[in-house]
Amino acid sequence: QKVLPLFNMYAETSSRLGGAGVGSVGKGISRMLAAIHSAAAAEALKMAHLCGIEDHRKLLTALDACGSGSPILRRLAPDLEVLMRNPSDSAPSSPANGIDRTLYDVSLLGSGCPEPLEHFPLLHRTVRAMEAASRSGNGSKDLSALAHFVGPFQDTPSNASATADTEPADTGAAESVQ
Questions:
Q1: Quick check: 106 and 177 in contact, CB under 8 A?
Q2: Which terminus has fewer CB within 10 Å in the chain: N or C?
Q3: Average pLDDT, 10 consecutive residues per value, the chain (178 residues)
Q4: Alpha-carbon span 132 to 57, nearest angstrom
Q5: What integer pLDDT is reported at residue 150 of this predicted model?
Protein backbone atom coordinates (compact mmCIF):
# COMPACT_ATOMS: atom_id res chain seq x y z
CA GLN A 1 0.00 0.00 0.00
CA LYS A 2 2.92 2.34 0.66
CA VAL A 3 4.14 2.20 -2.94
CA LEU A 4 0.70 2.61 -4.50
CA PRO A 5 1.21 6.38 -5.09
CA LEU A 6 4.44 5.56 -6.94
CA PHE A 7 2.65 3.05 -9.20
CA ASN A 8 -0.11 5.59 -9.86
CA MET A 9 2.49 8.00 -11.25
CA TYR A 10 3.00 5.84 -14.34
CA ALA A 11 -0.15 3.70 -14.52
CA GLU A 12 -3.78 4.72 -14.81
CA THR A 13 -4.79 1.97 -12.44
CA SER A 14 -2.93 -0.40 -10.19
CA SER A 15 -4.20 -3.42 -8.37
CA ARG A 16 -2.74 -5.72 -5.79
CA LEU A 17 -3.00 -9.17 -7.32
CA GLY A 18 -1.27 -11.19 -4.62
CA GLY A 19 2.15 -11.73 -3.10
CA ALA A 20 5.55 -10.57 -4.29
CA GLY A 21 6.07 -11.06 -8.03
CA VAL A 22 2.43 -11.69 -8.90
CA GLY A 23 2.14 -8.21 -10.42
CA SER A 24 4.70 -9.26 -13.04
CA VAL A 25 2.52 -12.22 -13.91
CA GLY A 26 -0.45 -9.85 -14.28
CA LYS A 27 1.62 -7.66 -16.63
CA GLY A 28 2.62 -10.76 -18.59
CA ILE A 29 -1.02 -11.84 -18.91
CA SER A 30 -1.97 -8.35 -20.08
CA ARG A 31 0.69 -8.45 -22.80
CA MET A 32 -0.19 -12.08 -23.62
CA LEU A 33 -3.78 -11.03 -24.35
CA ALA A 34 -2.62 -8.04 -26.40
CA ALA A 35 -0.36 -10.31 -28.46
CA ILE A 36 -3.00 -13.02 -28.99
CA HIS A 37 -5.65 -10.43 -29.89
CA SER A 38 -3.21 -8.75 -32.29
CA ALA A 39 -2.39 -12.06 -33.99
CA ALA A 40 -6.12 -12.86 -34.24
CA ALA A 41 -6.82 -9.39 -35.67
CA ALA A 42 -4.03 -9.81 -38.23
CA GLU A 43 -5.30 -13.23 -39.23
CA ALA A 44 -8.91 -12.03 -39.47
CA LEU A 45 -8.05 -9.07 -41.66
CA LYS A 46 -5.75 -11.21 -43.79
CA MET A 47 -8.65 -13.62 -44.35
CA ALA A 48 -11.00 -10.72 -45.10
CA HIS A 49 -8.52 -9.31 -47.61
CA LEU A 50 -7.93 -12.68 -49.30
CA CYS A 51 -11.71 -13.25 -49.50
CA GLY A 52 -12.35 -9.92 -51.20
CA ILE A 53 -13.33 -7.52 -48.42
CA GLU A 54 -11.64 -4.31 -49.52
CA ASP A 55 -12.76 -1.79 -46.90
CA HIS A 56 -11.81 -2.64 -43.33
CA ARG A 57 -14.04 0.17 -41.99
CA LYS A 58 -17.19 -1.53 -43.30
CA LEU A 59 -16.06 -4.84 -41.81
CA LEU A 60 -15.35 -3.21 -38.44
CA THR A 61 -18.81 -1.63 -38.43
CA ALA A 62 -20.42 -4.99 -39.16
CA LEU A 63 -18.33 -6.74 -36.48
CA ASP A 64 -19.16 -4.07 -33.90
CA ALA A 65 -22.88 -4.40 -34.69
CA CYS A 66 -22.85 -8.12 -33.91
CA GLY A 67 -20.58 -7.87 -30.85
CA SER A 68 -17.49 -9.37 -32.49
CA GLY A 69 -15.42 -6.21 -32.73
CA SER A 70 -12.44 -5.55 -30.51
CA PRO A 71 -10.46 -2.47 -29.50
CA ILE A 72 -7.22 -4.07 -30.69
CA LEU A 73 -8.72 -4.96 -34.07
CA ARG A 74 -10.00 -1.39 -34.41
CA ARG A 75 -6.58 0.07 -33.43
CA LEU A 76 -4.55 -2.19 -35.75
CA ALA A 77 -6.95 -2.30 -38.72
CA PRO A 78 -5.61 0.72 -40.64
CA ASP A 79 -2.01 -0.51 -40.45
CA LEU A 80 -3.06 -4.09 -41.18
CA GLU A 81 -4.99 -2.99 -44.25
CA VAL A 82 -1.89 -1.21 -45.58
CA LEU A 83 0.23 -4.31 -44.93
CA MET A 84 -2.31 -6.54 -46.69
CA ARG A 85 -2.39 -4.33 -49.78
CA ASN A 86 1.37 -3.76 -49.77
CA PRO A 87 3.06 -6.88 -48.36
CA SER A 88 6.54 -5.45 -48.84
CA ASP A 89 5.76 -2.54 -46.50
CA SER A 90 6.87 -2.60 -42.87
CA ALA A 91 4.71 -2.12 -39.83
CA PRO A 92 5.19 1.13 -37.89
CA SER A 93 7.89 1.20 -35.24
CA SER A 94 6.82 0.88 -31.63
CA PRO A 95 9.83 0.19 -29.39
CA ALA A 96 7.79 0.56 -26.17
CA ASN A 97 5.06 -1.88 -27.25
CA GLY A 98 6.66 -3.69 -30.16
CA ILE A 99 7.30 -7.34 -30.82
CA ASP A 100 10.48 -7.67 -28.72
CA ARG A 101 9.04 -5.78 -25.77
CA THR A 102 5.92 -7.94 -25.88
CA LEU A 103 8.04 -11.11 -25.99
CA TYR A 104 9.90 -9.87 -22.91
CA ASP A 105 6.69 -9.01 -21.05
CA VAL A 106 5.18 -12.40 -21.89
CA SER A 107 8.35 -14.03 -20.57
CA LEU A 108 7.42 -12.65 -17.14
CA LEU A 109 4.82 -15.40 -16.98
CA GLY A 110 7.60 -17.94 -16.57
CA SER A 111 8.20 -17.17 -12.91
CA GLY A 112 4.55 -17.54 -11.96
CA CYS A 113 3.22 -20.37 -14.11
CA PRO A 114 4.36 -23.95 -13.59
CA GLU A 115 2.79 -25.18 -16.85
CA PRO A 116 4.83 -25.32 -20.08
CA LEU A 117 4.02 -22.97 -22.95
CA GLU A 118 2.77 -25.86 -25.09
CA HIS A 119 -0.19 -26.24 -22.71
CA PHE A 120 -1.43 -22.83 -23.91
CA PRO A 121 -1.82 -23.29 -27.69
CA LEU A 122 -2.94 -19.74 -28.55
CA LEU A 123 -0.05 -18.25 -26.60
CA HIS A 124 2.38 -20.83 -28.00
CA ARG A 125 1.40 -20.06 -31.60
CA THR A 126 1.49 -16.31 -30.99
CA VAL A 127 4.94 -16.48 -29.34
CA ARG A 128 6.20 -18.47 -32.33
CA ALA A 129 4.84 -15.81 -34.70
CA MET A 130 6.43 -13.02 -32.63
CA GLU A 131 9.76 -14.87 -32.51
CA ALA A 132 9.66 -15.27 -36.30
CA ALA A 133 8.91 -11.55 -36.63
CA SER A 134 11.77 -10.70 -34.28
CA ARG A 135 14.24 -12.96 -36.11
CA SER A 136 13.34 -11.27 -39.39
CA GLY A 137 14.22 -7.82 -38.06
CA ASN A 138 10.73 -6.70 -37.00
CA GLY A 139 11.37 -6.73 -33.25
CA SER A 140 10.92 -2.99 -32.82
CA LYS A 141 7.78 -2.94 -34.97
CA ASP A 142 4.18 -2.60 -33.81
CA LEU A 143 2.20 -5.81 -33.27
CA SER A 144 0.57 -5.19 -36.67
CA ALA A 145 3.81 -6.72 -38.04
CA LEU A 146 2.25 -10.07 -37.12
CA ALA A 147 0.24 -9.72 -40.34
CA HIS A 148 3.27 -11.15 -42.15
CA PHE A 149 3.54 -14.13 -39.77
CA VAL A 150 -0.01 -15.49 -39.45
CA GLY A 151 -2.25 -17.23 -41.94
CA PRO A 152 -1.08 -17.99 -45.48
CA PHE A 153 2.52 -16.96 -46.05
CA GLN A 154 2.55 -16.43 -49.82
CA ASP A 155 2.64 -12.67 -49.32
CA THR A 156 5.37 -12.70 -46.67
CA PRO A 157 7.84 -9.88 -47.36
CA SER A 158 11.30 -10.86 -48.53
CA ASN A 159 12.89 -9.67 -45.27
CA ALA A 160 10.73 -12.11 -43.29
CA SER A 161 12.65 -15.28 -44.06
CA ALA A 162 11.48 -17.07 -40.91
CA THR A 163 7.84 -17.99 -40.47
CA ALA A 164 5.81 -18.89 -37.46
CA ASP A 165 5.52 -22.45 -38.76
CA THR A 166 9.20 -23.07 -38.07
CA GLU A 167 10.46 -23.99 -34.67
CA PRO A 168 11.30 -20.91 -32.60
CA ALA A 169 14.90 -19.85 -32.26
CA ASP A 170 16.43 -20.03 -28.83
CA THR A 171 15.54 -16.45 -27.87
CA GLY A 172 14.77 -17.34 -24.28
CA ALA A 173 11.21 -16.03 -24.48
CA ALA A 174 9.52 -19.39 -24.92
CA GLU A 175 11.70 -21.09 -22.37
CA SER A 176 11.09 -18.45 -19.73
CA VAL A 177 7.32 -18.75 -20.21
CA GLN A 178 7.53 -22.48 -19.60
A1: yes
A2: N
A3: 72 74 80 92 91 90 92 92 87 89 84 76 91 94 91 48 41 37
A4: 29
A5: 87
